[in-house]
Design goal:
Radius of gyration: 45 Å
Helix content: under 10%
Number of strands: 28
Order of helices and strands: EEEEEEEEEEEEEEEEEEEEEEEEHEEEEH
Distance between the termini: 85 Å
Structural class: mainly beta
Length: about 375
Amino acid sequence: MKIKILDKMVIKNKKVFLTILGAILIGGIAFSVIQIVIAAPPSPGHSWNQIGDFPSNCGTGQYVYGLGSTLLCGTPAGGGTSAWTLSGSNLYPNSTGYYVIIGQTSPYTGSKLSVNGGTGIAVDGRGSNSGGYFANTNGNAAHLGTGSYGVDAFGSTAGGYFKTGTGNSGYALLGYGNVGGYFRNYSSSGSSYCYVANSDNYGIYCVGTTGGAGFSDSDNGINTLLAQGTYGLWTNGTKSFVIDHPTKLGMKLVHSAIEGPENAVFYRGEDQLNNGKLEIYLPEYFEALVQKGNRTVLLTPKFEDENEAISQLAASSIENGKFIVRAIENNNPSQKFYWEVKAVRGDLPSLEVEQPATNFPAEIEK
């Protein structure tokens, strides 16, 4: 198909300019897109449709272009009616009521700018100081990709608030007052929460309806629960400490706590008989702390010279926070000795040593 381009022609005393804008291919046939610009509007008493098949609804400043056998209205670049205003390097909508939408045909609820990136990136922001800045009129704001931080946020209540889905009960606040992090979960059975680096000088402080905290080593099957029921600590591992070895460089010293079937306490000391007898007083809180029964006293005579006479010793029952030690014979009325008292705490129920596995969380059953 050949189309002759006319630089200028006159139709009914009106100057008309035709320009080839491009071509489109439909069904293997090429159609040229022609721009027709009227240099002057029709004279009074005449209308657009008097010039061929021009559309009658073109506005002031618009041009008419042909697409196939159809004439359409268009707005030339840099002129005509537009929803945008360019002021210097600022481009903005003419009305604050407009919504800017990219990648879809309707805005997200309440959003003035809605961007749908499909399977790609919706927004890629990069700057020398920050990749993005978001703020509200109350002074709460967040920088993205600023300095060495991925997110630098601050707010009147917390620096950040995180939650998954409207139906989930857990959430987290970061930079919450004097607390580094606050994590909470509401459920039908109660509420559990943790403070991290709070103002009371706790590294971690947790409260839960079942336990305060739980820790697990999945590789070895070792599990520990803290503040679980009447127990301060539940674990299926040992209770140990590890410190630098005091005499061997490059070595560690590992000790494990003594375990037994009771909530026991002990007191120990070193004393000496006076005329074959001595009364020993325990701490003033002893009677208020321990049970009345299950109290024992262990005595070990001590000598410093292998030729020194030794007396065997005996102890009385513990009453009113004290007990008496005396020599069984008069070999040494000034016998030196070590003593140790064991008792069971009275502020706790007696330990139930053998219990069904169903009394414990599944992690402790291992």
